[in-house]
Amino acid sequence: MANPIVSIAVPVAGIVAAAVGNKAAAAGWGALFGEDAPTVKAQKSAQKDVAKRRKQAKKDGLSKSEIAAIKDPEDDQPLWKILLWATISGVILQGLRVAAKRGAKSGAERLTSRRPRPNRG
User: Which of 25, 30, 73, 108 is disulfide-compatible with 9, CB 3.0–4.6 A?
Assistant: First the structure.
């Protein structure tokens, strides 16, 4: 049976690595492309914004063709950007998680393992 400290430290390290890696990837995306990363959160907020603009357009009495012209900017995203983000957020962050878990496991086991007494003699 594994040491309880190890069994707690390993998942926590994976979660922390995922959160830090995701923020770093989104910041790098913003620095490189000058736009928000196409995360699920960004896509949902863009959809809500478009729905809000369409609803306001209906209230303002715009025609159906003008309302239909209000589109989600996420729909105009090039395919290569979507694939690049999927690669970054999937493969690279998973590798970062695995590395953090392995490091936490070996580090915690090293700290909690018993060491033999030094020879005094």
Answer: 108
